[in-house]
Design a protein that fits this description.
heterotrimer, A alpha/beta (475), B alpha/beta (288), C alpha/beta (321), B: 288 residues, alpha/beta, 10 strands, 42% helix, 18% strand, C: 321 residues, 8-stranded parallel β-sheet, 14 helices, 10% strand, globular
């Protein structure tokens, strides 16, 4: 039979360096923290050593951001800020291949995703927000909405560059300065973004990028001279941050976990629904807060859909993230792999029926074969907890009301999917979903013009669109 | 009629789910005017009253949030009409509890009624002003609409007994939320009268629930209640605010913090309407 | 309605679908819809597969073996058909190991010439028929057209459906025509050309695909090549889904033939990837997948040379026939 030959993107394109340093006040500097080693999850080999921040470094970064805010960025006309942000967008495009390969090396996501989604969408975010910088008077917050000051931002490892763009672009457009801390396991593309910011000649201190683990993030968010905190990550940590900021008056936006329902009605375009389900849960190895991790299928088509789904999932190619034909790459870390395994075992123990793709897995690296649980009930952990991995839980329903009730039966509320060819049912279900993003007959679409964010324990505040500016304005 | 007629004294009760119960705790507390003279006893709401109020607000949420914006507007205008009819009573109550002259009380009551009318008109405009169609880079129609957050616990301002109260309650329900309101602790009487207005003006029971009592006693139960989606800390005693925020973090509630010395006589902006809506973005492909 | 030759073996649900006009309409309109954006996105996504080295060599040889080498011009002559047949037998004279093509595809009056040229080669002789390309004639003429080609020795008939009847909802009429043409084919294989460029929507492509399969078509084929757009990847996806689902329901394997507009190796490989991943590996054979093409063959040959030589080839190094 036809075996696709390996088609790996060359890792040389990533311009990988043995050491990466943090970016404070316009300079690349060594931090006083214990250096971390970032690992290629696809091979388990160490990629580079990265210097990390000690508390004094956090303080230095915040001070630099404050200075830059007071002296330069906070006063600069929006039209001038816009041109800096446009530069960043262009530089990302120019270095897109390098960034894509580096992202796949550090994160484990397939190159086709870093190349076709992460990097272009990151550039798009800078483009979009650049245009806002001198038009804030039209954003609906009065004639001269003011920035907040210094934004402390902490981002997760699932979309390292893209999340940095989601955070930095609106902050800069609205006139804030930034201290950003990328995730411990994926610091590299953010530090290359720092290079880009240096190449764009942004005034020193406008963007500062630190590296380190949770303690550095905690130091950033709890720093008394940070005016605004933006966090994307787990609900557990989000709650800790919200508690920390209680009573301080500092502004907060949170983009947290999810357990999205993807609802397939019996009149759905089934083949595209299958694609949407696959995209919903296996995109980025399921390391997506808005992943469609709970499939709700109408009983009358459940059997047919499940058969099609299993056939389709069997074609997913799991393996080397740098191979252009890889559909599902590596789990980001051993820790995450262990968590996925643990939850999958709970699914077995609680009586769900596990089906796993027979795809071959590489010998080295952190991989998990695409897995589908059927006969899942709402009470099982795999139906309630965010697995953050390539594991789908399938439940069935009989009536639209039941589908909505089950979909909303979660403390989360980030996203939802609806599959039906009936227009009125789409709008009905979209209205009923207690979720910040509803994809109808599609899934996992992102655009800087479209606000993104959750209900309930999926966080508050939105990113993208006119609404997204609010989180960085004093309104 | 005799000049010396003895007035019928009113019993001030809670307003939960469209009914006027006494506190389940059986407690009440005396309410005095600005000079310290006894006005009435108010029910001293308990944590169980708060729990019942949240349940009532949750029960009312699907109907109220699902009503058309036009319908919500009609109902809120109706409230304003009934408010207007009770104008004299409100002036007397505001004068008594805030200790202001009749003329000042009148201007506060008028402003309060006008404020209500202002928010009533917003019900069917918020989505236009805050929502958007998103010009995404692909063959999709994407739109964003503001939707009500859910059940909102409102700690009403302690000083401004009617204008402040209305300024915090009206925007919450105008956008389709349901509310559990903890009134000004020492000036609760206009709030109970407002509840009577709400009860007689087409507003479905449970959309607004009014608790009188000790703010510091009730608020923590609301801030930590998992079925409350948001809290407005406007009337929270300063010493309790941080704790309430911490409690709210337990279920990632939206928190509207108290603004220092908020002046409710000033023209409002959209901030309070924006505070308790969730922007929902919907995508659909465009194709044949 | 006419009874298709396959009907005895149909599972009850499908047998029921062809009972009468109304059931056929109900069945076709009851098929799941096709979301345009979704199917185009999936096709584009699969189109990014990077096929290299041995996998590419295998794909090129497989594609060559799937080509229905076609000439369908008013200006066709016996000479033209002879040289096409020579090309079909030995696509690259310098490389005798290059596989033969699957078939040559000509107008009915050229079949006899093709038969003479290809006797004993195993290469099939496909003839278009049924008032190709418009299909606008009487059933009688269409059947005679078919019989003429079969009698002349065609082993495969590429018929066109009556798109007018289809678009006006006369599915039963389209069905009957296919059934009768199939009957007229005798042992010859029947490819049913849907002319997807005129069907306008993917929903129609899916319905027409099922109609063609229910009526007994051995292959469903996208296009005549005379209408733009001809074959596209997403249309082929929809048709591959149809034969896959047909197989799931009946156990039978039916074929798909995209035709028109496929000119480069790169395109052909995208189609093979679609066959591989949408229908399944068992469809990667000339008995179940064909390319209706003329210029594609030379690009496949050039790319084959490039693969072998390690440097790019040029058009003067392959024969123009």
């Amino acid at each position: 039979m036809w075996e696709y030959a390996p088609a790996p993107e060359s890792r040389d394109i990533a311009n990988l360096k043995p050491n990466y340093r943090m970016f404070i006040d316009g300079q690349f500097v060594e931090g006083a923290g214990e250096p971390l080693k970032t690992v290629n999850p696809g091979t388990e080999e160490v990629l580079a050593e990265v210097s990390t921040a000690a508390p004094a470094d956090v303080d230095r970064a915040v001070k630099a951001a404050r200075r830059a805010y007071d002296r330069v960025w906070g006063r600069m006309p929006g039209s001038e800020r816009a041109k800096y942000i446009f530069r960043i967008a262009r530089l990302i495009q120019e270095r897109s291949r390098e960034l894509a390969v580096l992202e796949s090396l550090d994160n484990g996501k397939p190159i086709k995703e870093s190349r076709d989604v992460d990097v272009p969408t990151a550039a798009a975010h800078f483009f979009y927000h650049a245009g806002w910088a001198d038009k804030l008077a039209y954003a609906g917050h009065g004639p001269d909405p003011r920035p907040l000051g210094v934004a402390g931002q902490v981002i997760p490892w699932n979309f390292p560059l893209l999340m940095a763009a989601w955070k930095i672009a609106p902050a800069l457009a609205t006139g804030n300065t930034v201290v950003l801390k990328p995730a411990e396991t994926t610091p590299l593309t953010a530090l290359v973004l720092a290079e880009i910011i240096q190449q764009a000649d942004l005034p020193p201190g406008v963007v500062n990028i630190l590296a380190g683990a949770g303690d550095v993030g905690a130091a950033v968010v709890s720093h008394p001279d940070v005016d605004k905190v933006a966090f994307t990550g787990s609900t557990e940590v989000g709650k800790i941050i919200q508690r920390q900021l209680a009573g301080t008056g500092r502004r907060l936006s949170l983009e947290l976990g999810g357990k999205a329902a993807n609802i397939v009605f019996d009149d759905a375009p089934l083949d595209q629904a299958v694609e949407g389900i696959v995209n919903g849960i296996f995109f980025n190895q399921g390391h997506v807060c808005c992943a469609g991790s709970r499939l709700l299928v109408q009983e009358s088509v459940a059997e047919e859909l499940m058969e099609k789904l299993r056939v389709r999932v069997s074609t997913l190619r799991v393996g080397d993230p740098l191979d252009k034909n890889t559909d599902v790459g590596a789990i980001n870390s051993r820790e995450q792999l262990t968590r996925i395994q643990e939850l999958v075992e709970s699914g077995d123990a609680e009586g769900a029926e596990r089906w796993t793709s027979a795809c071959p897995l590489p010998d080295k690296g952190f991989y998990f074969a695409p897995t589908v649980f059927s006969n899942v009930s709402q009470a099982m952990r795999i139906a309630r907890e965010e697995i953050f991995g390539p594991v789908l839980s399938v439940l069935t329903f009989r009536t639209p009301d039941e589908a909505v009730a089950k979909a909303n039966n979660t403390p989360y509320g980030l996203s939802a999917g609806i599959w039906t060819e009936k227009g009125s049912r789409i709008l009905w279900a979209a209205q009923k979903m207690r979720a910040g993003v509803v994809w109808a007959n599609t899934f996992n679409r992102f655009d800087p013009t479209a606000p993104f964010g959750g209900y309930q324990e999926s966080g508050f505040g939105r990113e993208g669109g006119r609404t997204g500016l609010e989180a960085y304005l004093d309104v | 009629m005799s000049e010396n007629r003895i007035a019928v004294a009113k019993t001030y009760k809670l307003y939960i789910g469209g009914a006027f119960p006494r506190s389940e705790s059986g407690r009440s507390y005396p309410v005095v005017d600005a000079k310290g003279a006894f006005l009435a006893n108010a029910a001293q709401g308990s944590r169980k009253d708060a729990r019942d109020a949240v349940a009532a607000a949750r029960k009312a949420f699907p109907g109220w949030s699902g009503a058309t914006a036009y319908n919500r507007g009609q109902v809120l205008f109706r409230v304003a009409e009934v408010l207007e009819g009770r104008r004299e009573q409100f002036i007397a109550e505001v004068a008594a509890c805030e200790g202001v002259a009749a003329k000042k009380a009148q201007s506060l009551v008028d402003a309060a009624i006008d404020r209500w009318v202002w928010y009533a008109g917003w019900t069917d405009k918020v989505a236009t002003v805050l929502g958007a169609s998103n010009p995404v880079a692909g063959p999709y129609f994407s739109f964003s609409v503001p939707e009500p957050t859910g059940v909102v616990a409102v700690l009403a301002p302690q000083q401004s007994s009617l204008l402040g109260l209305i300024s915090v309650v009206a925007p919450v329900i105008a956008t389709g939320n349901t509310a559990v309101v903890v009134t000004s602790q020492d000036r609760p009487l206009p709030a109970v009268t407002l509840a009577e207005v709400l009860a007689t003006s087409d507003l479905p029971g449970g959309v607004v629930n009014v608790l009188t009592g000790r703010t510091a006693e009730i608020a923590p139960w609301l801030a930590s209640h998992a079925d409350v989606n948001a809290v407005d800390l406007t009337g929270a005693p300063e010493s309790t605010r941080a704790d309430l925020e911490r409690a709210a973090a337990g279920t990632v509630k939206r928190v509207l913090r108290a603004r220092p010395a908020e002046d409710f006589t000033r023209e409002p902006d959209l901030a309070r309407l924006r505070a308790f809506v969730e922007m929902k973005t919907v995508w659909h492909p465009i194709g044949v | 309605m006419a009874v298709p030759s396959t009907s005895p073996s149909l599972p009850p649900a499908l047998a029921d679908a062809v009972r009468d006009d109304a059931s056929l309409r109900r069945f076709l309109h009851g098929l799941p819809g096709v979301d345009q954006v979704g199917v185009e996105q999936r096709a584009a996504g699969l189109g990014t597969r990077s096929i290299k080295k041995a996998a590419k060599m295998w794909a090129i040889d497989t594609a060559i073996g799937m080509v229905d080498l076609t000439t369908l011009e008013g200006a066709d002559t016996r000479g033209k058909v002879r040289s096409l047949a020579a090309k079909a037998r030995r696509p690259d004279p310098d490389h005798p190991d290059v596989p033969q093509v699957a078939a040559i595809c000509v107008y009915p009056d050229m079949v006899a010439t093709a038969v003479e040229e290809l006797q004993g080669t195993g290469i099939d002789i496909a003839s278009v028929a049924t008032a190709f390309p418009s299909g606008r004639s009487s059933l009688k003429v269409k059947l005679e057209d078919t019989a003429y080609a079969v009698d002349a020795g065609a082993t495969e008939i590429d018929m066109v459906i009556d798109r007018g009847a289809f678009l006006s909802g006369r599915y039963g009429q389209v069905f009957d025509e296919i059934v009768q043409v199939k009957h007229a084919c005798g042992d010859a294989h029947l490819k049913v050309i849907l002319e997807t460029g005129e069907l306008a929507t993917y929903d129609n492509v899916r319905r027409a695909s099922w109609l063609g399969l229910l009526a007994g078509g051995d292959f469903i084929k996208t296009s005549t090549g005379k209408v733009s757009p001809a074959a596209t990847l997403p249309v082929t996806h929809v048709m591959l889904q149809a034969v896959r689902d047909w197989h799931t329901q009946t156990g039978e394997l039916r074929g798909v033939k995209p035709a028109g507009g496929i000119r480069t190796t790169k395109d052909a490989i995208k189609y093979l990837v679609a066959v591989h991943e949408v229908a399944g590996p068992e469809w990667l054979t000339p008995t179940l997948f064909r390319f209706g093409a003329s210029t594609l063959l030379n690009d496949l040959l050039m790319q084959r040379r490039t693969q072998l030589a390690g440097h790019y080839s040029g058009p003067d190094y392959v024969t123009v026939d």
